[in-house]
């Protein structure tokens, strides 16, 4: 180990920038989701909003991966943060000035479109930049620190978002979020790495050629492809629980007399659920940050995906017994909080080995576009899932949604667990050395 990765100036600047922008993103995502449901009073419109945002992000992701492999990654990162900050502040002005429901919804949908395009450009550059500014043996530590960062910012950001959303106008929150993005861009401006400009022109044909190479490369990484397909269906079933289910639960079930109703608003309970998840993630990420990279990425993923499925299964079981049958809403609030805590622990145990395996296996010059392809592959159904989640809740209620989602996750985890191919993920990686052998 070559010392603590935070001693690396470039990584520290990226880390600080991520702290500012991600807290802003937590504020924005939490507040806007609740605000759309509040002003429309429609789970269906809320689902359409989530689905539209996810679809735009996925469609724009190939452009982001292409640009990140050919342009200065650090420049992409800080420019997109500056632009996102400006867009959010301008949107806050429109929300403050125009109170018509239709105008506000149009502003929110247009803003979501622009921000998701920019996020699709930002994410491949930011994630692949880590490989260029840290040493190979520091990758697990870097991934773990990002896990710690994400957990801390979720805890702080969501609690603050819940409090601020309860007491401040949405326009004020937008200005605050925009300022955080601008601060992030300022930190990232000073990142330096060895950038080699490519001579090929930035054309559509070049992008198609690049992605053709990326797809051919992935065809030789069969274990990685199987993991992506598995996570695709895990995400399809888990997204409606978190994006649609939690928001609709606090909106329609926490009405009058519930646990700590005198001091905790329904919106703040939604924030607390996410905070319990983040506390679990924080503990798990901290343990991994001080643990030596053991490799064996495929088997670790299989074990933890099955554990995740068992934990998710507790959501519909507890919902029907404690809310529907016995009307023990307060006990369900505590139970769901505990479930979220354990989900947080497990999610980091899944994401960290998957992230490290990708960083080590994929060649540097293909990393951004391969990561964008993996993003599309693993999240391709999430917009459809958000749309279906809103429609199912509107038609059948929360219970059936929880049952279908938990069952789908369990079946997917079993199928992944039975795959011998996934066990070979990262088989050629040892102590930070790149895997240059093709997986069979």
List how many beta strands DSSP finds.
Answer: 0
Q: Give me the strand/helix succession.
A: HHHHHHHHHHHHHH
The shape, in one word, is globular
User: Can you tell me the CATH superfamily?
Assistant: MFS general substrate transporter like domains
- What fraction strand? under 5%
CATH class: Mainly Alpha
Rounded to an integer, what's the Rg over CA atoms? 21 Å
The span between the termini is 31 Å
Sheet bearing the most strands, described?
none
Helix content: over 70%
Low-confidence stretches: 430-440
Number of helical elements: 14
How many individual domains?
1
How would you classify the quaternary structure?
A: single chain
Q: Which architecture would the CATH scheme give at its second level? A: Up-down Bundle
pLDDT averaged residue by residue: 82
By CATH, the topology is Growth Hormone, Chain: A
Which structural class do you get from the secondary structure elements? mainly alpha
How would you describe what is shown here?
With 440 residues, the protein is mainly alpha-helical. It has one domain (5-195, 202-424): MFS general substrate transporter like domains (Growth Hormone, Chain: A). It is 79% helix and 0% strand. It is built from 14 helices and no strands. It has helices at 9-40, 43-70, 73-97, 101-133, 139-167, 170-188, 204-219, 222-252, 266-289, 297-325, 329-361, 367-379, 382-396, 398-417. Helix 4 packs across helix 12, helix 8 crosses helix 12 and helix 8 (222-252) runs parallel beside helix 13 (382-396). The longest helix is centred in the first third of the chain and has 33 residues, at 101-133. The radius of gyration is 21 Å and the shape is globular. The model is unreliable at 430-440 (pLDDT under 50).
């Amino acid at each position: 180990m070559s010392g603590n990765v935070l001693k690396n100036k470039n990584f520290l600047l990226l880390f600080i920038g991520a702290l500012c922008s991600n807290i802003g993103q937590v504020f924005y995502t939490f507040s806007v989701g609740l605000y759309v449901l509040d002003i429309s009073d429609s789970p269906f419109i809320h689902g359409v909003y989530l689905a539209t945002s996810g679809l735009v992000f996925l469609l724009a992701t190939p452009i982001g991966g292409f640009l990140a492999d050919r342009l200065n990654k650090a420049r992409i990162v800080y420019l997109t943060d500056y632009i996102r900050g400006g867009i959010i502040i301008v949107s806050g002005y429109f929300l403050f000035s125009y109170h018509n429901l239709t105008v506000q919804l149009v502003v929110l949908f247009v803003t979501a479109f622009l921000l998701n395009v920019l996020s699709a450009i930002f994410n491949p550059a930011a994630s692949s930049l880590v490989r260029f500014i840290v040493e190979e043996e520091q990758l697990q530590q870097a991934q773990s620190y990002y896990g710690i960062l994400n957990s801390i910012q979720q805890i702080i950001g969501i609690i603050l978002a819940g409090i601020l959303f309860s007491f401040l106008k949405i326009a004020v929150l937008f200005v605050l979020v925009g300022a955080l993005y601008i601060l992030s861009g300022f930190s990232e401006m000073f990142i330096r790495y060895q950038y080699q400009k490519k001579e090929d022109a930035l054309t559509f044909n070049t992008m198609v050629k690049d992605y053709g190479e990326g797809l051919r490369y992935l065809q030789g990484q069969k274990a990685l492809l199987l993991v992506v397909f598995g996570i695709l269906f895990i995400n399809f079933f888990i997204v409606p629980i978190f994006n649609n289910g939690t928001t609709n639960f606090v909106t329609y079930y926490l009405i009058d007399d519930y646990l700590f109703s005198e001091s905790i608003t329904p919106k703040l309970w939604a924030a607390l659920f996410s905070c319990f998840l983040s506390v679990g993630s924080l503990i798990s990420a901290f343990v991994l940050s001080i643990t030596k990279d053991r490799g064996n990425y495929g088997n670790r993923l299989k074990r933890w995906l099955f554990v995740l499925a068992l934990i998710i299964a507790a959501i519909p079981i507890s919902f029907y017994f404690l809310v529907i049958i016995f009307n023990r809403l307060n006990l369900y609030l505590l139970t769901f909080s505990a479930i979220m805590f354990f989900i947080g622990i497990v999610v980091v145990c899944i994401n960290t080995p998957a992230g490290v395996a990708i960083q080590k296996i994929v060649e540097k010059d293909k990393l951004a576009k391969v990561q964008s392809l993996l993003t599309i592959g693993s999240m391709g159904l999430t917009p459809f899932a958000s749309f279906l989640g809103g429609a199912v809740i509107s038609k059948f209620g929360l219970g059936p949604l929880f049952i279908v989602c938990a069952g789908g996750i369990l079946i997917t985890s079993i199928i992944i667990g039975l795959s011998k191919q996934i066990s070979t993920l990262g088989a050629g990686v040892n102590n930070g050395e790149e895997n240059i052998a093709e997986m069979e």
